[in-house]
Amino acid sequence: MVMASSRWRRNVGNVRGFVGSCLGGVRGATGIASWAVAGTLAYFLWVKPARDLKKQQEERAALAAASDPYRYIEKRKPIPDPQETGLIYGKKKDAKKMDD
After folding, report:
1. Is the pLDDT of residue 27 over 90?
2. Residue 56 contacts by C-beta under 8 Å, 6 or more apart in sequence?
3. What is the pTM of this model?
């Protein structure tokens, strides 16, 4: 029983050491506070502005699309065809011209 508890304590110590090393070696409440401050700054300096910019671009695109109701929008894709061009409305190449 004594061996199992010492092994358990050693494993907990190893995990704590690993987590402490991953956090830059800072321990205790000051380490957690510094990571919270760093995460908050990263969010407000990088993540939030990127999300806001993407949202503004989507709103502009939606507004531009709604402003012109007669704008042509492609709704169907061309049907694949065994021709060399790959499209039904494409021009087929002449095999005779290629042989000459």
Report:
1. no
2. none
3. 0.43
